[in-house]
Amino acid sequence: MKLKFKIKSGALQFTVFIAVLIALLLAGLVLYAYTFIYMKEQSKGAIENIQIADIGIQSLLEQSELNTDTAKIDFLKKENQILKTHLSQWGVFQKGITVTQFRKKKFVKTAIIGSLLTADNSPTLYLQETHNGLSVVGNTKIKGIAYLPSQGISSGYIAGNSYYGSQLIYGRTEKSTSELPKLEKNLLDALSFYLKEYKIDRQEDFINLNSGLKITNSFKSATKGFYSQNAITLENKILSGNIIIKSETSIKIKKTALLKDLILIAPIIEIEDETSGCFQAIASRKIIIGKKCNLSFPSALMLFQDNKNSPIESPIYSAIPDNQIFIDTQSNIKGSVIYLQTKEKSDFLTQVVLEKDSKIKGHVYCNGNFDIRGTVSGSVYTRQFTANQAGSIFVNHIYNATIENENIPEIYGSIILDQQPKTVLKWLY
């Protein structure tokens, strides 16, 4: 006798449902595993992007030549990973850019680059050999490593005041040379270009200074700026980023303007009392810093006199003469103050004046004459000192001033010196 079994349609449907459910679960597991592996790889790639960007910045710190175009670094043999670097001039400093890419993800890192100086090992004072020794008078204090002419250092006498310190140098002395340590070789060409040739060529690179109270341009974008033949006054504005402002006449900065990281170029640059900001000022005639100004790191004041190729014009009478950086009382500058002339002149005119109760925290480089009445924490490189006191000019005299290496970080940065290691001064945005 044959038995016949019939499967009900409901049971068949249930079996199919179970099969489909298992298939979906397996597909889900496969998709989850693939997604997990993909996201892990993407996350790993993003982390490596950041790490490799640091490698790119390090390569720029070791690079001696500027790049006209972005260069691809091929020493990294990583699948789907690309690293490109670019090193260019940014005022008196350099600007480094690294771009890392993993598949479609990009990471950009930008920085201002300068020379690396150390508080303990770098010169606190470098006075060029002019066969004229240094004299210290009053409550002057020099602490750190001092490079001096062969005549050395002695106590001086001005207006009834002698030297009141317990020792002439609070640190060791070395012999200086007939030339100051050289600046980076591209700097002179860059300054000449900024002052004589720089203009904004493309309409899309212009910014309208009247377009709003706040204008920002990222360093990941192309440089933008404003150019005028006439005098420019900056007030009631917040300007920051990858911006260059140039006038063929003068630029005046009011205390109501807040400037961050941009470059100013003009024959005359004047900064009003109590102004705060962080910027570079590049001038060819004079720079005037008012009272109680605060410029944060890495600001730079650069006066460039190309007196080898262009004769200096006859000065127009004013309270502050031409060919001078003047920093008024109670101002604080964190960064670099540079006076540079292409042909040194043997005169007794003063090119950099730091008034009483003012401070520079960073680096002073002057291949002219420096009249210091305040405090420099960091380093001073100068051809000569002058002290304008009691109606006379005393050459290579320092009167009631301080040059020291105590109130600075152990490692700090400055304008780029030739053959000097480089460091990141500031990360950009």
Tally of DSSP helical segments: 2
Strand content: 35-45%
Q: What is the C-alpha radius of gyration, as a whole number of Å?
A: 30 Å
- State the share of residues found in helices, binned by percent: 10-25%
- Unreliable stretches, pLDDT < 50, 5 or more residues? none
Mean pLDDT: 88
Give the tally of β-strands. 29
Coarse shape: elongated
Measure the end-to-end span: 90 Å
The largest pleated sheet is described as: 6 strands, antiparallel
Structural class: mainly beta
How many domains comprise the coordinates?
A: 2
Task: Write structural notes for this entry.
It is built from two helices and 29 strands. The strands form three sheets. Strands 1, 2, 3, 4, 28 and 29 form a six-stranded antiparallel beta sheet that branches. A six-stranded parallel β-barrel has the order 18-19-21-23-22-20. A three-stranded parallel beta sheet has the order 9-6-26, with no helix packed on it. The chain has 429 residues and is mainly beta. The longest helix is centred in the N-terminal third of the chain and has 53 residues. The relative contact order is 0.14. It has two domains: 90 residues; 289 residues, no CATH class. The radius of gyration is 30 Å and the shape is elongated. 15% of the residues lie in helices and 43% in strands.
